[in-house]
Specification:
This protein is mainly beta and 124 residues long. The chain contains no helices and eleven strands. It has strands at 2-6, 9-11, 17-24, 32-38, 45-50, 57-59, 67-72, 77-82, 91-98, 113-114, 118-122. The strands form two sheets. Strands 2, 4, 5, 6, 9, 10 and 11 form a seven-stranded mixed beta sheet that branches. Strand 5 and strand 6 (57-59) form a beta hairpin. The protein starts with a strand and ends with a strand.
Length: 124
């Protein structure tokens, strides 16, 4: 499973970015896909997740109302739209896939394949 995360960069507080997690050689439709982030000195946390079964989503309280996860069928990707960004959103963002029905509500260990990460920096 090859995943490519892209779209990170430097943005001012209040700005927006759209991250994309693209797959090659297989369809993401059969997988639950999660977006995670890890800030310096902190543990990796799940930001948002979209289920394979019905494309329902889960979103962390810290980003609820600001971040939206969605499938981009045309590009065989899962996007994370990030609005109203805050300095505390600064982190390396990773995407990962899972076949587990518990992926979006369970342990990160349910996710078997991970992309390389894309850096998001929110600063003025």
């Amino acid at each position: 499973v090859q995943l490519q995360a892209s779209g990170g960069g430097l943005v001012q507080p209040g700005g927006s970015l759209r991250l994309s997690c693209a797959a090659s050689e297989f369809s993401l439709r059969g997988y639950s896909v999660g977006w995670f982030r890890q800030a310096p000195g902190k543990e990796r946390e799940r930001v948002s997740c979209i289920r394979a079964s019905d494309s329902s989503t889960t979103t962390a309280d810290s980003v609820k109302g600001r971040f939206t996860i969605s499938r981009n069928s045309a590009k065989n990707a899962v996007d994370l739209q990030m609005n109203s960004l805050k300095p505390e959103d600064t982190a390396v963002y990773y995407c990962a896939t899972s076949r587990s029905i518990y992926a979006c509500s369970g342990s990160q260990s349910n996710f078997a394949s991970w992309g390389q990460g894309t850096l998001v920096t929110v600063s003025s």
